[in-house]
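Sequence dictates fold. Below is an illustrative record:

_____
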Amino acid sequence: MYKLKYILIIIIFATASLLAANPTVAAQAYYTWVDENGVTNYSQRNPQGYEARRVSKTHKFGEQVYLEQRPVTTPTNVAPDQIDPDALVAERVAAETRRVAATKRSNCEIGKKNLTNLQAFSRVRVSNDDGTTRILAPSEKSARMETARQVIRENCSG
């Protein structure tokens, strides 16, 4: 009897040690970004040269977090009548286009993940606003599956 308790204590201690040493469990926040090839990347450090989103307990994955936008700067050595407003905002438009495309790719992946989970599991547990959990009713599950399909249709096209 003592041997069984001793073995259980060792197993629990070893499991707890492994979980505490695992960087993905210990990480409080991470960064996600899409590279020039359209691949979504994840890191514990903010990458250089990419507009990354910080994912933490307060900013969950897939939640839209707007990055601080840089102001449009006006050249100081050009006469006012020679300033081309379209050229000044072209960089901002290109950055916004990239941001929208990255958001759509992210939403596409979230929609596919949600639909996969809803189809793969017969019982899906969800958290209520008050912190309690419950199993989705079949009608709720069907509604969420249709929502996931709509997200995929809107965000996964070309």
